[in-house]
Amino acid sequence: MTTTHEGYVFDNRNLHAAEQHHCLAAAYDPITLARLESTGVGPGWQCLEVGAGGGSVARWLADRGASVLATDIEPEHVPPAAGLTVLRHDVVRDPLPEAEFDLVHARLVLLHLPEREQVLRKLIRSLKPGGLLQLDEFDLDYGPVLLAARPAHAAAYEEFLAAKERMFDEAGADRRWGRRAAASMVAAGLVEVDPVPVVRRWDADSPGLRLLVHHTRHLRDRLVAAGLTDAGLQTARDAMAHPAFRATSCVFYTVQGRRPA
Ligand SMILES: C[S@@+](CC[C@H](N)C(=O)[O-])C[C@H]1O[C@@H](n2cnc3c(N)ncnc32)[C@H](O)[C@@H]1O
């Protein structure tokens, strides 16, 4: 596996990428879209979807009649749709128009970027006065095993999560960014900042756990470099597939704030 952008550990050209975007949409679109719906977004709105991934959120915004710019460093997975413009764009290095958008959304992007505070300010400048920013981000520091069929299953799951955390740390990701995002948004000048934490019960059928199983494959080379073995990864997969397995999800924070009018 190769990575082409410092700070971002996944790769949309990886053969597992479509599955990653499918799992992300299944696990998190219900939360993200409910929060976006509360803004009243619809016809006449100019929206920016940053790090659009598989494009499910951008597509939903366009289906509501908004005009949507979907950006990504690797935008190949964003399908075309009426009202949707797709742009290859690096949110760290490339400019964004100023005071252009009524709504800017990014999910699980700034977490990965060492330059996240600078990017946050760039996103805020791209909002019209009175416009809304929604950041949806993880806090990966919480996520205990609740039930496992065997002690080895619980241990393999925990070792997998710990290796992933080390890997994220080494890449410059902030695995606690979800809990910090609201305070950063206030410090950057947004008002009406409103963070909502969400946790779920995970079992073998949960899309969130399917996303983790996916990570054992997509990130295999990096996880092995971070100290795991293929046997350990397989035990973690067996644990997550077992009908008795239960864990609490990591915390998913959806945070909205408004640029002062
Ligand atoms: C974890 S995925 C999340 C995808 C999508 N936002 C979602 O939640 O379903 C992160 C996305 O951000 C993109 N990305 C990473 N670094 C980026 C950058 N510097 N500029 C723009 N997009 C970036 C990746 O290519 C990937 O599609």
Shape: globular
Binned strand content: 15-25%
CATH architecture grouping: 3-Layer(aba) Sandwich
- Average pLDDT, to the nearest integer? 94
| Count of runs of 4 or more consecutive helical residues | 8
Give the SSE string.
Answer: HEHEEEHEEHHEEHHHEE
Quaternary structure: single chain
The CATH homologous superfamily is called: Vaccinia Virus protein VP39
Name the structural class.
Answer: alpha/beta
Helix content percent band: 25-40%
Q: Give the uncertain stretches in residue-range form.
A: 1-5
User: How many domains make up the 3D coordinates?
Assistant: 1
List the helices and strands and how they pair.
Layout: H1 17-37, E1 46-50, H2 56-63, E2 67-72, E3 84-88, E4 101-107, H3 116-126, E5 127-139, E6 145-147, H4 151-170, H5 177-187, E7 191-198, E8 201-202, H6 207-218, H7 220-225, H8 230-241, E9 246-248, E10 251-258
Parallel strand pairs: 1-2, 1-4, 2-3, 4-5
Antiparallel strand pairs: 5-10, 6-9, 7-10, 8-9
Helix pairs in contact: 1-6, 4-8, 6-8
S-adenosylmethionine (SAM) binds next to helix 1 and strand 2.
